[in-house]
Each structure stands twice: as C-alpha cells, then as structure tokens.
Amino acid sequence: MAARIAQVTSGELWGPSLLAALEGIVRDDPRNGQAQMRLGYARLQSGDCARAEPAFHAAAAAGLPSADVYLGLATCLGQRNDLDGAERALAEGLRIEPGNPAVIANIGLLQASKGDFSSAIKSFTKALETDPGLHEARFRLAVTYAKAGRMADSAATVVLIGPMVAHFGLVGAMVATVVAAAIAKVLGLSRIATLMRLELPRLLPWGDLARILAATAIAAAVAFALRMELDAGPLISLAVTGATYGVTYVGALWLLGALSEPERMAIKARLARHALAMSGIRR
C-alpha cells in the first residue's frame, strides 16, 4: 500500500491508473480520509458522480478537516438537484474553514440557482475580496448582475472590481461597488429624465449626492492610508480598516452636512448610550 500511496502523491498516475490505485488504497484502509477525498475527485473528473459521492461521505466520516471534501460533495449533490443537501455540505465546509473563498463562491452559485440574486451578488463579492484571482467567481458575478437586471453594474463590476480589490483589498471592493452602483444609477436616471422630459439636474438633489460621494472618497483614502501603515495580520487589518472606513464615512457625512437632524440626533443618542455603558452607569 505504501508504494501505491507514493505513486498517488507523486502525481505520476492519472486516469484509470489513478482510480485503480486509489481504490486499492481505500479498500485496504477505508478510514484514509485523504485517499477517499482524492478518489471522490478522481471519480468526479471522470463523470462518475454517483460513485464519487460515497467517497466524499467516507472522507467526511473519517474526520478529514478540509473544506475540499464538502466542495466535492456539494458538487455531486448539486448535479442531482439536491440543492438542500448541497447547501448543508457547503455550510459544513464553511464551518471547517471560515472565510474559504471557494466555498463562499459556491454558496453564491447555489443562491443564484435558487433565484436569490441579491444574496448571490454578496457572496461572489465577498469571495473576490478574499481572493481576487477567482476569475470564475467574477464571471458569475457579472452574469448574476445581468440576470438581476443590473446590466450597468455588471459591466462596471467586471472592469473595476478586479484591479480595485487587488490593489486596495476590502476598501477597493467597497469603492468598486459604490462606483458600479453610481454608474448604474446615472444611466437609469438619464433614462427616467428622458421619459419624463425633465432636465437631469432637476431630477435629484445632486448636492447631497456629491457630499455622499465626497464622504466615500475621504473614508476610502483614510482607510487605505491606514492599511499601508498597519503592520498586522490580515484579519486584524481587515477589522481595523473596515471600522476606520465606517467611522470616517459617518464623520465625513456629518461634517459635510449630509445628515438630517433626526440622523444626527440618533447618532448622538447612540454615542451617549455607549459612553454610559463604558463608564458602568446604567439607566
């Protein structure tokens, strides 16, 4: 068996030879989760999903701590239209490897297949924030935008989100989303103005929109500058820059006069409650 394992791990076997070697390994050692998972993928690649599924189940039962097991299982379940089973498999994969972009992208595929385009767009975007190299996810995101009737978003996202996420991470994804949405809104408003026979400047409060756009740019710039100076791990960096973006955005809206009086009062009340909680005083 050791010789067969060496042949499999070295990559010298493929096709029927690889299948035969893997089947021999799991026949002698059914609890070998790694071999069971490899066998599942080998059968999946040969188009034999019916026999791949039991191998993935065996890998899971062996306790192999890898999301890849559940990605393969979800693929098989999806192919036989067991969408609920595929959803459970992906949820387990995400539990084992939280934030795994491949799992998140596949959750997006599942959501899109159910017609939940809004959730699918969020999942694809989140996957691309983690791994901008998931070109299939970017393509699926554009397709989902198109299915949701957001053609301008689709085109803008394809053009913007790759380079923005690659250079600026989470902040880049936020800015790309805002810009894509802005392009779509301007095109939509132009169409409405034409149908209503109105001049575009009379259609919306452009001053408020300009202040919101300025606040977005300021917040993105501050978060990016902080990210360049921050010497921390990815999760800490993500949390700090995300919080910085949010706080700066709200502060910029306040200073630029883009918040209404009720919104200002609500923020003041929340800050007051937080201050009381921090000081240990309770109403």
Describe the structure.
The protein is mainly alpha-helical and 283 residues long. The chain is 80% helix and 0% strand. The chain is built from 13 helices and no strands. The N and C termini lie far apart (70 Å).
* Helix run count: 13
Biggest sheet record: none
Oligomer: single chain
Note the beta-strand portion: under 5%
Number of strands: 0
Structural class: mainly alpha
Radius of gyration: 25 Å
User: Can you tell me the residue ranges where pLDDT is under 50 for at least 5 consecutive residues?
Assistant: none
Helices and strands, in order, run as HHHHHHHHHHHHH
What is the typical, i.e. mean, pLDDT? Answer: 77
Give a brief outline of the structure.
The chain is mostly helical and 283 residues long.
Secondary-structure topology with pairs:
Blueprint: H1 2-10, H2 15-28, H3 33-45, H4 49-61, H5 67-79, H6 83-96, H7 101-113, H8 117-130, H9 135-147, H10 151-196, H11 206-229, H12 234-255, H13 261-279
Helix pairs in contact: 1-2, 2-3, 3-4, 3-5, 4-5, 5-6, 5-7, 6-7, 7-8, 8-9, 8-10, 9-10, 10-11, 11-12
Q: Features of this protein?
A:
elongated, mainly alpha, 283 residues, 13 helices
